[in-house]
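Worked Example 4.2. Consider the chain below.
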Amino acid sequence: MKDQKDQNQDAQEVVHVPVYVEGTMEKLISLSKRKGFIYQGSEIYGGLAGTWDYGPLGLALKNNIKQIWWRRFVLDREDMYGVDAAILMNQNVWKASGHVGGFSDPLVEDLETKKRYRADHLLEDYVEKTGDKSADPKGMTLEQMDALIKEKKIKSPDGNVLGDVRQFNMMLSTKVGAIQDDSSISYLRPETAQGMFVNFKNVVDSFHPKLPFGLAQIGKAFRNEIAPRDFIFRTREFEQMEIEYFIKPPKDEGDKAWEAVFDHFREEVKAFTADIGLTPSKIHELEIAPEDRAHYSKRTIDFEFDYTFGRKELYGLAYRTDFDLSAHAGMSKADLRYFDEQSEETDSEKKKYIAHCIEPSFGVDRTVLAVLMDAYREDMLGDEPRAYMKFSPKIAPILVAVSPLLKNKPQLVDKARDVFNALRKVFPGRVAYDDNGNIGKRYRRQDEIGTPFCVVVDFDTVEKDAGVTIRHRDSGEQERVDMDKLKVMLLDATA
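Applying the procedure from the previous section yields the following structure tokens:
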């Protein structure tokens, strides 16, 4: 019958195009809104720059990424403890961490329009347009950036003369409580890390962990970005997945025991990128030079990704030494030393020390953007063009879509509903029921949102073998399987 043949129309040769398609960013933004991945924040009021809302599919994708991260770095380890610290913290937290005095970006003002821009971003754009690498702002002081902007006669995006480069603090401040004075000042946290440092003593007192051990957290952070850009790459509100892993301090300059821990997390970061299906050749390690590292870091590696708008930082790995715990101990007067019961020292005071820390840091939204860009494909399936998302089955918002061959045949619909409900019990939240349009249109619709598998219930299912047809997204190939084999295939794909 004709509809049965329609089911097999995609089992044809697939002709692929290069992974990165011209105009990918624009196509992703359009697809994200159209299909419910990501929306502009406050859109019906004209939006708010640097803010984005996750729709149903985007939230599912993000949650799948976070769950994989949490399993690898917390649930599958014995040395990791999860916390969820408050976003609002005592202002002294940020004074101790150095954010109040030093968390700033170089800012320059358009003298005509009074609009402000990141000086380093303007220089980066100049380098990209001209190829003049002498204007690369990395590692430059304010004075050097200011001199270069004047020397190169760089103008604002509106074509106007720029003023002097100045420092601009990026923290978003607020007032807490009924009394509006200096003591009520608080900040929306610019990073999640400090919540783990200030809870170090609490976790030690509650669980008595032995070093080394880590604290892990997934949470929101906020920065008053002057020039949010590149979709969800640089925003004012974003989410981080961070670990503060505490180790014994080196005995002396020659003690390099920390390097083994650093290398361990270096490999774990790479393993995580494989877990979520990022293409290995698009990920690069950048060893940060001493002059470009944060002042507290003894070693830093940035993991960069080849976004369509350039190679940019995706994750970071830093050896923060004892800077943070020492700073908080000094500001709060709390004893944040770790009492090492296994120390060979006989003097109890010598058994106490400030732990050092290694920090793997992951941007959730940057990860989502990398996954979206890496997954976007265009090809010819048979004689028809197709755009689809090649998500790994581990992170795809919808793993499998179930359809009756015909939605006006009760026997097919009832059986399809049975299959749908059976799969939902195994893969909660990751199974869709789709009966809108013909089979070909359903396949295209599911391909576009990255569903790896489509399952069709036909007359043979009801009258003959109780099997179903499973269609594979990437190849368009179809095969007949029974329900037990189907569940095994899906479990294997997500393992």
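The CA atoms of residues 307 and 373 lie 7 Å apart. The chain is about 35% helix and 25% strand. Compare this with Example 4.1 before moving on.
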